[in-house]
Design a protein that fits this description.
Strand content: 15-25%
Bound molecules: 2-phosphoglycolic acid
Number of helices: 8
Helix content: 25-40%
Number of domains: 1
CATH class: Alpha Beta
CATH architecture: 3-Layer(aba) Sandwich
Length: 259
């Protein structure tokens, strides 16, 4: 099962996950990170800033989960721009080693396969950061996505477009299509780290961790993966049936085990 770590707040969650990423990069200077956008991973990136001083990140590679389709890569809300601004520049990563799916309309029908090939050529993703949508999506795999899916074009749900409207002038400006790593792609990463904060994510977290494994809640795909760490604050943990057990597991976690 997923290891569920319940922490008091987002900064402590960010610190825990950042420590794990630093450990990974020290062990494996050519580590391949799976990067997520949205508000959720920001405390991780924030915590990494100070921790990466003096760590050689010149060979670290990265693959973003998803991108909007038809958006100019230079648009401030393209995930290429977001990853550059929030991750690559502040952490001093090498821009050429950090990829996002190519959401430009020209050649879009081949962009998914090319992204899969690039991930494979890099040797696969070592640690994949994940947020979860209020509708249970991971990446932009909306309800109904196949657990075997690869990187491909999807249509965003109205709920996701409304959730993301805060980044745009209005909901009408949120693109309708996206290109996202598939659930099958995500499940091939060696370690999944799913973060969620706030009451609004409590149902999605409970469904992903404890609900039936169903394409209707794509986050439940994590139950099929052998190495998953779910890091949540108290509010996002509030609907977890086995919360006391997860706290007990964390309190008694053997030191040697790592995340
Ligand atoms: P959020 O989005 O981090 O902005 O809440 C999560 C997601 O949609 O996966």
């Amino acid at each position: 099962m997923a290891e569920v770590v319940i922490l008091p707040d987002a900064p402590s969650a960010g610190a825990l996950v950042a420590d794990e990423i630093v450990r990974l990069i020290r062990d494996r200077p050519h580590a391949v990170l799976g990067l997520a956008t949205g508000s959720t991973p920001l405390p991780v990136y924030e915590a990494l800033r100070s921790r990466l001083h003096g760590v050689d990140v010149s060979r670290v590679r990265g693959f973003a989960l998803d991108e909007y389709v038809g958006i100019d890569p230079a648009h401030p809300q393209s995930y290429r721009s977001v990853i550059t601004r929030e991750v690559v520049e502040p952490l001093g990563l090498v821009p050429a080693l950090i990829r996002t799916p190519d959401g430009r309309l020209e050649g879009i029908q081949h962009a998914g396969d090319q992204y899969e090939d690039a991930i494979e050529a890099a040797g696969g993703i070592d640690l994949q950061l994940l947020g979860i949508g209020t509708d249970g999506h991971i990446g932009f795999n909306e309800p109904g996505s196949s657990f075997a899916s690869r990187t491909r074009v999807k249509t965003l749900t109205g709920q996701t477009r409304a959730d993301n409207a805060r980044f745009f002038a209005s909901v009408d400006e949120v693109p309708v299509h996206c290109i996202t790593q598939g659930l099958g792609t995500i499940l091939r990463a060696r370690h999944l780290v799913l973060l969620a904060f706030g009451e609004g994510k409590a149902d999605a977290v409970a469904g992903a961790v404890e609900g039936p494994v169903t394409a209707s809640l794509p986050g439940s795909a994590i139950q099929l993966h052998p190495h998953v760490t779910v890091v949540v604050d108290e509010a996002a943990a509030s609907r977890l049936h086995y919360a006391e057990y997860y706290r007990d597991v964390w309190r008694n976690k053997p030191e040697w085990q790592g995340l």
